[in-house]
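Example protein
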Amino acid sequence: MDNTGTPLHSVVTSYAKAPTSTITVEGVTYAYRELGPKGGIPVMFFVHLAATLDNWDPGIIDPMAKSRHVITFDQPGVGASTGQVPDTIEAMADDAYTFIKALGIDRIDVFSFSLGGMIAQDLTLKHPDLVRKLVLTGTGPRGGKDMDKVVGTTYRDILRATLTGSDPKEFLFFNRNTTGKPAAKAFIKRLQERTVNRDQPIRTRAFQTQLKAIQAFGRSAPSNLSTLTHPTLIANGDNDRMVPSVLSEDLHRRIKGSELIIYPDSGHGAIFQYHATFAPTAVEFLAN
């Protein structure tokens, strides 16, 4: 048995039961979880601002893990990983590369959301041969219009959530209407499916450093995304207040041959609101 009570010989396909492992490289201990059948190209998941291992939606991960080797991880200074959060997205991408190579992996598919999508872009631009296929959701390009406003939006919604005793993600990720509110509650409930060996929440200073890195990314000169020839799937809601929806359309224009899905009546967390539709779409897109 492992630390979640799962027999060691069985393939774990439920994220709630995926054991947490660690690997130490260059003085930093990375916390990560693996699930799904080993073999083939793994799908590496890059998570959002302030998120730890426990912030991935089982409604997205579990369908992927039925057929693919899935890896989620904490960046340095986040959750159970040691080290410091860097103040640039480029450095976060370098850390991700260090972690991936430490696992002995030479090729990955990428599933990314929000901040994770920014890191994934920089990683792929710097190491194009590492990545086979890209899924970029709720994210935008370097230098994207109004991306630097994410700081103000985030702090305002954290305050609103605090005043109502809610999880900030209910405000940040979902529309506050009759569709969004129940979707938000259902999402938060799925995040609670794991009851043992949960990750440590992000520390305030680490969160603030991530926010500054996103702001700098938004104010930087654009990257040359025309060099990306990887099959790319882009998805968002039609009302993303954190990373404006128009930036998904911008990514689509700039990454030749990319596919774009914009979900109606949804915000930053559209892929979680529409997980029953989006998960199989992503699985099919990433299929060998």
Notes: Residues 203 and 218 are 23 Å apart (CA to CA). The domain at 15-286 is CATH 3.40.50.1820 (Rossmann fold). The chain has one domain: 15-286. Residues 204-219 form the longest helix (16 residues).
